[in-house]
Amino acid sequence: MAGAAGGMTLANVPGTATRPTTDRVKEALFSRLESYDVIHDAVVLDLFAGSGALGAECASRGAARVELVELAEKAAAVCRRNAEMINSVLRRAVVQVHRTGAEGYLARLQEGRHYNLVLIDPPYPLAEDKLAEILALLEPFLAEGSVVVVERSSRSPEPCWPAGLECFSGRKYGETQLWFAEPVLSQHE
């Protein structure tokens, strides 16, 4: 982990129910996000959070608030432990955990809530139409200039983006594909 909690070791989800982002992909992802200057003071949403490692990394690198959304009970418990550790190190409650599904969480969001960075790392078997539904539900809650990152298998097709989101970059790292999108009205790079 880099930033304020550098060197801290997070708990992992036991078993094989989750697929952690590899160190190589995480390093490349955060290098790009830092170059886009979207982490510092950001409101971050980490859907399908797993252990919460990506969201915790954002908190360590200066995000103002991080919301981890995870449905699986064991993974959500690990998210809570990791959130407690990172909040303790940062001496403020930056990371919050919501044990619910991504669709349900987005469907209950209040109007006026906006995110600067959204990380979506669903299980690879998640159907493309379900991912498209989640992206459509997310669209109204994106701040101007925000970035959405979708992590998928390199064998999966590009996500079906809703009308208000456009992909501006994609990168493949072995079995992993990262897709970067932004609201249509903002101009990136």
From TrEMBL:
Any one GO BP annotation for this protein: rRNA methylation
CDD domains the record matches: AdoMet_MTases
Domain of life according to the entry: Bacteria
GO terms assigned for molecular function: methyltransferase activity
UniProt keyword Transferase, yes or no: yes
Keywords (A to Z) from UniProt: Methyltransferase, Transferase
PANTHER family on file: METHYLTRANSFERASE
Protein name per Swiss-Prot or TrEMBL: 16S rRNA (Guanine966-N2)-methyltransferase
Source organism per UniProt: Crystallibacter crystallopoietes
